[in-house]
Design a protein that fits this description.
Blueprint (H helix, E strand, L loop, with lengths): L54
Length: 54
């Protein structure tokens, strides 16, 4: 359990994730311009904490 999260002093439990989607979701039809370029840098997926040195 994580209790040091900057909020109320209660346990915080993340929901179980079984899907990861990385990218752009466009909900409007017929956008202008008709396409977009998306660049994503520094994406890390892990079962343990990544970074921050804690």
């Amino acid at each position: 359990m994580i209790t040091e999260h900057g909020g109320n002093p209660v346990d915080f439990v993340l929901p179980r994730a079984d899907t990861v989607k990385i990218g752009w979701q466009l909900y409007q039809g017929g956008p202008t311009p008709d396409h977009f370029d998306l660049w994503l840098d520094d994406i890390a997926l892990a079962t343990n904490r990544v970074g921050c040195g804690r």
